[in-house]
Structures are given as structure tokens and as C-alpha cells.
Amino acid sequence: MCLICNETVAIVKSGNVKRHYDSKHGHFDHNYPLKSEHKKPFSDSEIVKECMNEIAIALFEGTQKDDIIQKINQISLSDSTAVKRTEVLAEDLLDQMKSAIKKAKCISLALDESTDNTDNAQLLVFVRFFDEEKGEFCEDVLGLTALHGHTRGDDIYEALIQMLRDREIDLKHVISIATDGAPCMTGRERGLVAHLRAHHPDLIAYHCIIHQMVLCASLEEKYAEVMTTVMRLVNFLRASSALQHRLLRSFLTEVNAEFDDLLLHNNVRWLSKGKVLERFWTLRKELETFLLDQKSAKAKQFVEFMQNEEKMEIVAFLSDITSHLNDLNMKLQGKNNTVCNLTSAVCAFQKKLELFKCDLQQDLLHFPKLLNQTAGTHHHHNHAQFLDKLIKNFQTRFGDFPLGKQVLLCMENPFLVKNIAEFSTEALKICPWASAASLQSELIELQENLALQASLCDPTTFWTKMVPAAGVPSLQKVALQIHTMFPSTYCCESAFSTMNMVKNKYRSTLSNEHLHQCLRLALTPFMPKFKELVAQKKCHFSH
Fold it and tell me: How far is CA 393 from CA 148, 212, 263, 279, 321, in A?
């Protein structure tokens, strides 16, 4: 019987079984690869052998069972064997990535620095490039290196340059770099970007779009005060006493509340503030009832806060506006996004802010919680001033983004570009090697191509597969460079979560090199060449 589809083979011969597998499950290896991507300890391999033995005992009988169990026990799955195999697989994946990078016309970097569970500073670098063989853009871990001692711009620069040397990458091959905007990265004199531009003046460096969006939403004055009070209230109910937390959960269950617990705020998590406010607002009436039964002085203060109409109006407004900001944040997150996608999302949100400002003076269609709190009456606060500051923050932080509007429009749909001269001017700012005359001529030729006008595909496919390189070489090269750019450091932030899962408190002695290898196995888009690797090795049975 086939263990995948439960079908039976008429005559149990190796040829029949192989034919069945190839014809009906040919893509099984590709869809379900055997990779070390589950972030488990090396010693867990022995558990697999134990499971296989139990299966053999349950399924087989007599001498056949004994033979199968004997062969299973000969499989070497010790922790040292798992380490060696991880090293071999990671080396193979690294070689594949290096080979693909050498064929790429340009690459882009995204990097960030964080600490692992043993307080070791780790510099994580991702690379993005167009893979000629696969015909798609590829994002992979360029490397993970430990920063011993300080994490200044000089230290990060030295670590990055050494990593590029190890990967045989010329710095001039890098067209852009995305960072989290920390002083060690963007410092004017001794930051990483300053050091890199001293050797590569044309390098495009910019602040992660998601980080900038989060910084735009910083609170001030009365809004920050109310937000702090809400967080203190949540911490009082959830974290000050285990008994009180249990009583709160029991109470919320008894009164059939929509949720049975509050959420704790975490400054590191991008969506935390909005989700905490939303949960608090949903449970506000139940929380007020629960606090009225408490006899402590703090509980009385929080009851007064929740019974204050002006304060709760601010809570309602903050809950609404952070909900909109969270929606934008979710659109900006995710893998394989382009800088054009994220910039378009930010521009659309800036226009929405103008709409929200007008809506505050009208029907509150976009502020349902504020409408519920005020019942359509006059507001106690002028929330339009908050939106004015938010609009100004977005304009300040995204106004000097290296990609102009005409360039972004051309990348999304070149047939809509009307001001060709402005497009060429903007393109030269990020691609100084290009010729304005060539770009203008090629764009006109492209716009008059009827076959391309009728093509229906996404922008990435359009520029990499539909547009003939021989016809518009300069324009296609510009498009390739722009689509190669990292829009954010989301991949780094996501990888740090994986790093903390790999090197947890139970695996705190994991070396930096093995941490790098495990991370590569968990995150790489490449597939190990299992057959070639197996052919190079000699089988050693377990004793």
C-alpha cells in the first residue's frame, strides 16, 4: 500500500512501486522537502528513529519486523551526525547562492542588528537579486555574523565588508542598502552608510519604510498621557498579581464577554499598540465593573479614568486611528514586496489621512468607536490637530524618498507616463550611469509597442519577461535595479524571530557558526542538491 495515497500496487516489485511514485507523486519531494527548517535541536533526530521503530512494531510481524527494525537501528541519526549534515547542507546552499549572485546584474542589501538569547550582538544581512535561472527575484540570507564588543558604525562596516569578501561580492555590485535608521547605520560621519559611500558614492541608502511609518505615528502630549494610563491599567489587571489575573479571566468568562483576557503591550511589536487598544475598548464596560469591585486605591483611580468622558473619547479616537495605521502596517509587511508596492501604499494612506481629517467634522464614518463614544455630539478635543501632525510627519519622512513619482509610475505602468522629461530626471538621480536621451527615446518606443500594451501581467513579470532587453536596454536595466531594491527590513525582523526560536534558552550553547547554518536552512529559498550530496558521501551504519 502507498503511504501517500493509500492505493495498492498489483505486484509488489521495486519497479512497480517506483513507477507508481513517479507517475502520481512526482512533485512530492519538491512540495515536502526533507530540510532542517523546523528549527529543532540536533539531538531530536534520535526521536525519528524511535518513531520509526514503533511504526515497524505496529505494522510488521515475525522475521520481517526484526529485519526492518535492525535496518532502522543502523541509520545514523545521532546529534553529531545531525550537526555534520547541517554543515554540509548549509555549505551547499551557500554555494548555490554565491553562484546565483555572480550571474546577477545587481544586488541589494537589507541589514539589521539584534541580540540573541545570550546577549551576543548578531548582524544579519539579507541579499535580493534577480535569479536568471529561476526567472524571479530571490531574497536570501547573505550571512549572520557576531559583533564582539561594540556595535558602532565602524564595527558593522568591518563585519559587512568581511562578509562581502567571503561571498566574493564587489561593493560596486551593490546598488542599494536598507537599514533601520539607527545612528550606527546612518550616522553622518561614522555611520555604516557614510563608510560605504566613501568607497561607493552612487550607493542608494534609505530608511526602512515600515520603521518610518511607525515613527510617524508617535504620540505627544495628552494622547501619550492617555495611552500610558491605558497601558498602566492593563498591566495592573494582568501583570501586577497572578490572583487578580485569574479572577479577571474568570469574571470575563462568567459575563460572556467577547474576549476572556487583555493583551499586553510590547514596544518591539509593530501592531501591539493598536491591538491592545482595540481589546481594551471592546472590554471597557466589563473592566469598569470588575474594577468597581476592587478595593485598592489604584483600582479607584482607574475607575475614575474610565468614567471620564473626555479621557475615554481620546481612547476611542486612538483606537480608531491605530486601527487604520495597523491596516497600513499589514500591507507593508510580507516577503517579496517591491519598493513600488510599499511606496504606493504609503501614498494612498497619506491621501486617506486628508479624508479622515474631513470626516472628523462630518459623519465619523472612519471613526466608529469615536462615534459610539460621543453619540454624534460635539467632540471635547480637536482631533484634527493630531491628524495635521500625522500628515506632516508622513510628508517629512517620505518627502525625500529616493524614488520620484514619475519613476514609480513608470515601474507600475509605463504607458501612463506623460512627462517623459521629468521621468528621465528622476531616473538619473538613482541611476547616474544612464543617459537621459536614451531613457526618453526608449520609453517612447515602449509606449508605442502595441503588443506590450495588450499584455496583462504584474509589473515584475512585465519588466523581467515581457520587455525585450535588446529593444530598451537602459530602461530595462533601470527597472531591474528598482525592483531589486529592498523596500524594508521586514525580512531581517522576521529572521530575528526565527533566530530566537533556534537559539532558545535550551540551546544557549549553540555556536555562532551553527546558528548561521541553522538560520540559512530555515530561511533559504534554494533547495539542497540531495542526490549530488549523497553520491559524494559514504554510508556509515550506526552501531
Answer: 36, 9, 28, 27, 15
